[in-house]
Specification:
Strand content: 5-15%
Number of strands: 11
Radius of gyration: 28 Å
Helix content: 40-55%
Number of helices: 19
Strand order of the largest sheet: 3-4-5-2-1-8-9
Bound molecules: adenosine-5'-triphosphate, magnesium ion
Shape: elongated
């Protein structure tokens, strides 16, 4: 059966072949195609060296040239083209000491992680399946290429990748492969946190995460990972796919409101999202007053609060207090948000400078405190959002220390 993405990428393969080299589709795209799953990025593996690829195509980007990867830019998209590689010895359980470019497809697929990821396909959709990956796909089995212990010992990330493929595909793990995972699980400690997080993000959002999360717990995988090593992961259950950042926020609310996420080396945006979401989840159940509810929506925004409510099932599952559904539900959040006369401090009709001019006092922390109280006044309809009325109201109601 034809596939649009492969059809689009075909000219890359054919051009390489016209220059006398071999080229194949390989990896996740071939696996997903055979499973009739939607494919995303198409990876190409070739006998041509990176220099030869740069020579063949007018437009290329050397995104990982020393590892053999060149991006070929075509009119309709970009394709990662990687030279057949074999790997030297491993000393540190995560990176080969050397990679060699080779001219033989077999050598290249032999160093790949799982049989289902080691199938090459040429431009006529002919498979080159040296390790019976197709059969494993049909039977839904995750099996390493070659002896599992050796392959996990070379690169412990493969253990985590195996579990994340299980979470995504719902496959079972071959017996020997699982035993090797068990035996070598402590080698996860050698991995960089960046590589761990990439796999965990996919694992935790995988359709079949319920099962693989149980394996993660059984294997005590989290004991060997930064951040998670400080949590009691046996006390936390994941029984449906969730976003990684939500998972972290829930863990923090359940076990350790002060946990530092910085060891996970996430982007500032992700870190900020996690801390705001955990603050909201922490505060929501304690809200009984309308004024506090309004302030929370004003401070955090309705979207984040609605998102927190969408995690109610996960909170209940993990014995985290949930908000009172009669007071706080999607409807009351939306209604209350709509009633707010101002959305943020920029909407307030007075600025810090206005307060300084009006009071003739020196600046200090009081300015911020006064603005905070003025916001509360407006949010709770005690004073209209107009400059003169706000200043008048401040004189009467806001005590300045
Ligand atoms: P996805 O659909 O999530 O992209 P994928 O199988 O394509 O899954 P990638 O991380 O994109 O995974 O890697 C592409 C291919 O490179 C894999 O299919 C596999 O053949 C090989 N590979 C990736 N990581 C490793 C590894 N740690 N050890 C051995 N082979 C690997
Ligand atoms: Mg991929």
């Amino acid at each position: 059966m034809m596939n649009t993405l492969f059809e689009q990428a075909k000219p890359v393969l054919e051009t390489i072949k016209q220059h006398g080299h071999d080229a194949y589709f390989v990896g996740g795209a071939v696996r997903d195609y055979l499973m009739q799953r939607e494919i995303h990025d198409v990876d190409i593996t070739t006998s041509a060296t990176p220099d030869e690829i740069e020579h063949i195509f007018p437009k290329t980007v050397p995104i990982g040239k020393e590892h053999g990867t060149i991006n070929v830019v075509m009119e309709d998209g970009q394709y990662e083209v990687t030279t057949f590689r074999a790997e030297g010895d491993y000393d540190d359980h995560r990176r080969p000491n050397e990679v060699y470019f080779v001219r033989d497809l077999y050598e290249d697929v032999k160093r790949r992680d799982f049989t289902m990821n080691a199938i090459a396909m040429d431009s006529d959709y002919q498979l080159h399946d040296y390790f019976h990956g197709q059969k494993d796909i049909e039977q839904g089995v995750i099996r390493t290429v070659g002896p599992a212990t050796e392959r996990f010992d070379e690169d412990a990330l493969r253990i985590l990748r195996g579990l994340r493929f299980q979470a995504q595909l719902g496959f079972s793990i071959d017996h020997d492969t699982y035993e090797a995972m068990e035996a070598l699980i402590n080698q996860l400690a050698y991995l960089s946190v960046e590589r761990i997080v990439v796999e965990l993000q996919k694992l935790i959002a995988g359709k079949h995460v319920g099962e693989s999360y149980q394996y993660m717990r059984k294997l005590k995988a989290f004991n060997y990972m930064p951040f998670f090593e400080h949590f009691n992961m046996d006390a936390f259950t994941v029984d449906r796919p969730i976003e990684f950042n939500d998972f972290i926020a829930l863990l923090i609310v359940q076990q350790s409101p002060l946990a530092a996420t910085s060891v996970l080396k996430l982007s500032n945006k992700d870190k900020q999202y996690i801390s705001r979401l955990s603050e909201v989840m922490h505060q929501l159940p304690e809200i009984s007053q309308k004024t506090v509810f309004r302030r929370l929506i004003y401070d955090y925004g309705a979207d984040l609060i609605l998102h927190a409510l969408s995690l109610n099932d996960m909170m209940e599952r993990n014995e985290i207090a949930t908000p009172n559904p009669l007071v706080i539900n999607t409807q009351t959040v939306a209604e209350t948000a709509q009633q707010l006369p101002i959305r943020n401090r920029q909407d307030l009709a007075v600025t810090g400078k206005d307060l300084l001019d009006h009071t003739d006092r020196k600046g200090g922390p009081w300015v911020n405190e006064a603005l905070y109280k003025l916001e509360n006044g407006v949010i709770n309809n005690q004073v209209p959002n107009s400059k003169d009325l706000l200043l008048e109201w401040m004189d009467k109601h806001v005590e300045i220390q």
